[in-house]
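ok so I'm stuck.
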Amino acid sequence: MCGLVGIFDTRSRRDIDRALLERMNERQFHRGPDEGGLHLEPGVGLGHRRLSIIDLSSGQQPLFNEDQTVVVVYNGEIYNFGGLAEELKALGHTFRTHCDTEVIVHAWEEWGEDCVNRFRGMFAFALWDRNREQLFLARDRLGIKPLYYSLLPNGELVFGSELKAMKEHPQLSRTIDEHAVEDYFALGYVPEPRSIYRDTYKLRPGHTLLLNRGDAKLVQKAYWDVPFAMLGTPMSLEQAEAELVERMREAVDIRLIAEVSLGAFLSGGVDSSSVVAMMAQVSPDPVNTCSIAFGEAEYNEAEYAAAVAEKFGCNHHVGRVDPDDHSLIDLLAGLYDEPFADSSAMPTYRVCELAKRDVTVVLSGDGGDENLAGYRRYGQHLDDLATKAKMPAAMRSLLGAVGSLYPDTPSLPRALQRRQGLISMGQDPVASFFDINAVIKQDLRHRLFSDSFKRRLHGYDAVEVFREHAKAAPTDDPLSLAQYLDLKTYLPGDILTKVDRASMAHALEVRVPLLDHKLVEWISGLPVDLKRRNGEGKYLLKKSMERYLPHDILYRPKKGFAVPLAQWFRGPLRQRLQNALNSDVLHGAGVFDRRGLQRLFEEHDRGQRDWSTPLWSILMFEAFLQAEAA
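replied:
not stuck anymore, here's the structure
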């Protein structure tokens, strides 16, 4: 895995500041500690940091075509590069290396913008074609690899794998985007295409960006979407099980190409255990696995991971996380560059740290919940919709109105604390599913935000993120639509961002076979009752894995990769939280009402409410602001 940066002058051929480009590149040293390279020509500067995985001796970047007129910097892996190279050689192209990077420049020469449709893998790249005077940026279909960009007032387009690299450019605006702040406090992350900074964006997954010299117009195109198109040929459950296993095995197999040590994350859950089971089927050597053990049984799945590792004869490594290991708070603020409120980033960082001791590449089980409807929230959403369907629209609207007026008082008996359920009755399906996902519900955000910040939002609500995607969704099935929304928001914005930054901090490459786009396409076309049946999520995956994995691995309750925030905020992090809630930098941002924050803290501290998730979101926002001010 690697990091890329670049500066492109859209207006002229002014010389690019080499020292600036070098500083930008070195800010991503952690993404590629093996080698670094720059390419500069009039109006164009490209930088690259390399983590060597394939063709260790000759895969240096920036990498050129035969006559040096096309150059690329690239982050990722193209797993079908061998077949593509043979096809391109037959068409007359000459290869100097055996790495997947070189396929990109020749594929561009042969197929232009359509080259991305030929690539199977995870990638973000920037390519400069001197003859066409075009800069071409692309990001993989699911958003596994990151790519930020910003068009600056001086006409330069600056881009990079991480915001920290772009922040080296003195003209990059550091003005906070109020809409991004609203999105963050609703979802716990800043969703694509926004970044926390106004005028800086993430290239959307499955999109390309084309610029022509002399034209500052950014031409962005979608080249892929999750189809959710029903499969043409009906199949029995047994046939679906067999095909899923074969497709998973193939997706795993092509991700075992590496010239460095390779292993897998193993949490003991269904997804990671299934990936390890497939690795054991196709690997001639014992699989290297690693997992994290927690001090508290509520979060600990180490015994299940150990059972799977023993079954398949894995070389298993376990790291232990102290239940009071909250030392990473300030580090995470710098690692993610934006506010990021998924507290599982801490154990994710630790498991990446553990893995790097033994391997350079790991396979993970990320994507199974989104693909095969594994999240509990899908069941909650479908139950809500079923309840609403039994009521007349007028009654639902009335209940929603009552909910908005209902007292939000923690002293009420639990049976009378029905505010959120009543509000949900008045919501449409997209708003209802958004509310299930929200880390801070809309009414609580409005109570916490200052009047001045609410005015600056001009009525904007983060639910619009989901509404935009819902309009483009290729399905109206309630379960499929919920999956689609997660694949467009939570997966790239939270899960994949968390893993990319945590792994790259340790120069560790993570591959995700369950997000192979061919597998995702096929699963999306399955009947919904093969994904979720009788309240059981990931139904088909579990059935297909029964011949490989123990019953209690497949059908036990999911624990998740969580940390004991509620206890921390009433114990070892209590003072740290108080300091953050009262800090000058937090209140200088003008986002919060002081009394609202104090009330939130007191209710949690007294045990009246568990406000740990909202409080963590605020703590991480304050840590981001402190890092900005440093």
